[in-house]
Amino acid sequence: MYKILKKDGNAKRAEFTTVHGKIQTPVFMNVATVAAIKGGVSTEDLEGIDTQVVLSNTYHLHLRPGDDVVYKMGGLHKFMSCNKPILTDSGGFQVFSLAKTRRIKEEGVYFHSHIDGHKLFMGPEESMRIQSHLGSTIAMAFDECPSAKAEHEYVQMSVDRTTRWLERCKKEMDRLNGLEYTVNKNQMLFGINQGAIFDDIRIEHAKRISELDLDGYAVGGLAVGESHEEMYHVLETTVPYLPENKPTYLMGVGTPANILEAVERGVDFFDCVYPSRNGRHGHLYTNKGHINLLNARYELDDSPIEEGCGCPACRRYSKAYIRHLLKSGEMLGLRLCVLHNLYFYNHMMIEIRDAIEKGEYSAYKKRKLDGFLEYDSIPVNDGYNIARNWRKG
Ligand SMILES: [Zn+2]
Known about the structure:
By secondary structure, the protein is of the alpha/beta class.
């Protein structure tokens, strides 16, 4: 199912075959939290911006419209008319970050809905059942994401429980995939490595979950307030203990620079709300660094956001026009900015794959990072302030 086509240092160029088609990795998954990419981006639009995988949110879809509704509509693929692979997160992160009050027990988590405050419970079995209803291509295990600042003792206790939860997820997923009316009987399960910034816990956990022979493995609990150096350090120490012949997914990361660094450390799946969220604020990614389209200097600029960019915004419209749309609060302005940013990320992944195939990854990475510094109005790593809160929106 997962075939490594080429290695360049630790960077992997691979092909992951799923029931909804082949995924070329490294890949950036485009975030469609409530089964839609914010900014008025349709499933049809994804064809024009090189999207390979869509990521939707279990917690949000469970609350609205309800996973039973999606199930009755034939699953997420049919519901949103999407034939691409879809990954659903487990809802765990949202239960821990969004829910107002929560009690963590061995069986799962008791909490209140962030929408109307009503009482809810989610444990490994519930998360698997919801994701089975959604019928995503890849389901994520239900885990606890301890704070980056949590004490060693708490993190160890939490990770041990996450491992027991993972075993329950696997058992439940196997059962659900065997039922007659399951939407996607080939639903895959990715486990999640946790351990905050403690090397010993991360490594031990990576070894334990590797034994479960899952379809893929994620490194979770990063981009939650630790420094970039700490994040890269965790990847360097942990990824070597995850199975090389399975996909490695770095959850919720990150800036273009973060992705370039993580690919070099063996990661091949990514997701992040930066391109869509920043796009909605007129913050655009280019090969020379960020630009803020609301800046007055673009008022009479008739060039595209980026010369040579093949996205639907740059092929037709000028900075001046899109800036005007943003300032007028026109939906089209947000849409064009989000399309450009997603295209930028998706297209960078194409370049990354190409560079690994040619065995030129480190030279490519350096060239790309150096290029980002040309526009110094917003430093290339500024994403971090936004990173701390990105999952909350
Ligand atoms: Zn563009």
